[in-house]
Design a protein that fits this description.
Jelly Rolls; alpha+beta; 317 residues; five-stranded mixed sheet; 15 strands
């Protein structure tokens, strides 16, 4: 259900947060990060991380300034027909269908494939719950990107083994659709401006999930990283997080992590649902204000005859 968003008459008061983000503790000897294994109701994650101080900027009132192609993330207003996210069948039918169309509207993709979803209602320290920790999955408090550049192609070939050789010739993306189930107070999610994170800060790390051998990015600390969030994100708002883009002249990935807001430390555990989607076979490429110029884009093999913008802080469709 995509209704036109009401006009914003007053800018909300911004609430920037002093906090810490956990970055991979690079031993400096060239060794690879410890692999992660997910399966059998459990996740093993023994990679060492260290906290580093940052200020997270609240983008409330400035949502239109941040887009997938300029920053690697984008906030949209989008009402879900599914509300509770406890019925797996309803999630994989009603909600999946709604999100497929939503992503087509936002990105211009002619094909959207959902390959994963995660509902999070668990405590902050859910990793330490033992052999059944995945049954009470909570927020991820370590900086990361879900797929490395090589990992994105591994996922594409896993999902589409017969079509992959053709699909890799086109523009394709992997995007997370992150939605609160209840208004977020404790452990909000933050994303980093892609332009503030050079590739040299990213380290490929193996991750196996239910038989799929993938690769993600862990992150070396860099004080130049710029972190953003939206205070009190509601269930009628979604955060789109770009994990990968095969096009190289736009934002290709965005670091993300939950973080602690000391003012809400004692609130109930955060509730959210995250869908992971692959978007391919683009017939229209949306251009953001800080994106590449129109003439360059018109030379792309994957660009339609017309190029248009879709404002982020309006409902799609």
């Amino acid at each position: 259900m995509n209704e036109k968003a009401p006009p914003i008459t007053e800018l909300p008061e911004k609430r920037h947060v002093q906090t810490t983000f956990n970055y991979w503790d690079d031993p400096g000897d060239g060794s690879k990060p410890t692999p992660i294994v997910i399966g059998g109701g459990r996740i093993s994650n023994k990679r060492p991380h260290l906290p580093h101080d940052f200020v997270v900027t609240d983008i409330s009132g400035d949502e239109d300034k941040y887009t997938l192609d300029s920053h690697g993330f984008q906030y949209c207003r989008h009402e879900s027909l599914e509300k509770d996210f406890v019925d797996e069948h309803a999630i994989q039918t009603l909600y999946y269908d709604q999100c497929r169309q939503f992503l087509k509207d936002v990105t211009g993709a002619s094909r959207v494939h959902i390959f994963n979803h995660k509902v999070r209602r668990g405590p902050t320290q859910w990793h330490h719950l033992g052999f059944s920790n995945l049954t009470n999955r909570g927020p991820v408090t370590r900086t990361h990107v879900d797929q490395s550049y090589d990992g994105a192609e591994l996922r594409l070939r896993w999902e589409f083994p017969k079509e992959a050789d053709e699909l890799v010739k086109r523009r394709y993306q992997i995007i997370n659709v992150w939605r609160p189930i209840a208004t977020i107070q404790k452990d909000p999610i933050a994303t980093a401006d892609s332009s503030s994170v050079p590739d040299s800060d990213l380290v490929a790390a193996n991750m196996t999930e239910d038989g799929f051998k993938g690769e993600q990015w862990v992150v070396r600390h860099n004080p130049a990283h710029r972190w953003y969030y939206k205070n009190l994100l509601t269930p009628d708002e979604v955060l789109l997080i770009k994990c990968f883009d095969s096009t190289t002249w736009v934002a290709r990935r965005s670091l993300h992590s939950a973080f602690e807001d000391a003012a809400h430390r004692d609130k109930e555990s955060r509730q959210s649902i995250e869908l992971v989607l692959g978007c391919a076979s683009f017939t229209l490429l949306l251009v953001s204000p800080r994106g590449p110029d129109i003439d360059k884009l018109r030379g792309s093999d994957h660009l339609a005859d017309s190029v248009s913008d879709l404002p982020a802080w309006r409902s799609s469709g």
